[in-house]
């Protein structure tokens, strides 16, 4: 492994302004990962595996580190703000595959935002009132995010730092309550080795794989940070530390939160709740206001959802600008200069998702889409080893991307006991993208032929 002492490729006047230093980037990575996953899906993971819910998070932590190592090598090698799509294009030179990867990343953001909407409308919101149907709340939540996105949100990375600290505070409360319960003789340690599956061998393996695949939803987000490469000071040196520290911190917190959750609450109670960490706070024997924790959780899932909606709409805008999607999808709202068509498009998709799925299915859809992307990225690292660049950069041991690709494929496969609804949902989303891509290709061909005809007539 090697790390550069230079700043990487030569800067150009047209480059984005590099304003993000090492500490802010670390907090940005942590903030990108934290949010809906741990606050909303802990209980659903427990429902799949049982009291040993720390194990899927520990395995997910390891798998995330494998893929993170590949992203670190690639962002150091190509410090540009295009992420998985850029790496796919450079490795395979297949525009259609590049489009599919970009569209899957976009759709993963939408399914993640939809899972957040379901989490928002569940037990955390019900702590304040149960007079409004959850589906109506979830739909209103998505429409509210769309309105904010249309108006334009100029959040700086420093603002993201504040949001991250608030999200961390909620998890610190859970860990503090867990520490208090353990030191005062509370909790039930026997639950930590309790598996929901009564079988052994293959049945137990698929149960753990299914829980890990769902729990992996909590680790996604670090892959988005590479899009900040062109705004980061010395990205070749900064990103390895930021991504590894970010994944390491969040992974450690997640495993500890899973241990505390299982110690204090029976996995069946966790599985039945849309706000599992609220159950942990209530069971901890500490007089912490449930409404205050619910408010922190609502804030965490809102922040995650807004980031994903904005990411998806701007990716849609970018694809339209590159003439990969219909050009009309790049239309901007006058005065606000926000991508109105892109925002409307992703909002319609998100409303469809939130109306037809629950937290578990939507979170699993997010994980499935990104696991497919991660498999391609891990292979891309190996393919691009033949492409030499002038500057030195981090190089991950070859075994890590190999293991990263294998584990991503396994967790994305039917071995993880993923419900058929997840594959259908992901398939429909990808099919929508393919239809748009095909329509755009036909339109471009028609316009080219029409232009050629008028040119020959002249």
Q: Please, could you describe this protein's structure?
A:
The structure is a single chain. This protein has helices at 22-33, 36-49, 54-77, 83-92, 95-126, 134-151, 157-183, 202-215, 235-264, 267-271, 276-283, 290-321, 340-356, 359-383, 399-412, 420-457. It has 16 helices and no strands. By secondary structure, it is an all-alpha fold. It is 70% helix and 0% strand.
SSE diagram, text form:
Layout: H1 22-33, H2 36-49, H3 54-77, H4 83-92, H5 95-126, H6 134-151, H7 157-183, H8 202-215, H9 235-264, H10 267-271, H11 276-283, H12 290-321, H13 340-356, H14 359-383, H15 399-412, H16 420-457
Helix pairs in contact: 1-7, 1-9, 2-5, 2-8, 3-8, 3-9, 3-14, 3-15, 4-5, 4-14, 5-6, 5-12, 5-13, 5-14, 5-16, 6-12, 6-13, 7-9, 7-12, 12-13, 14-15, 14-16
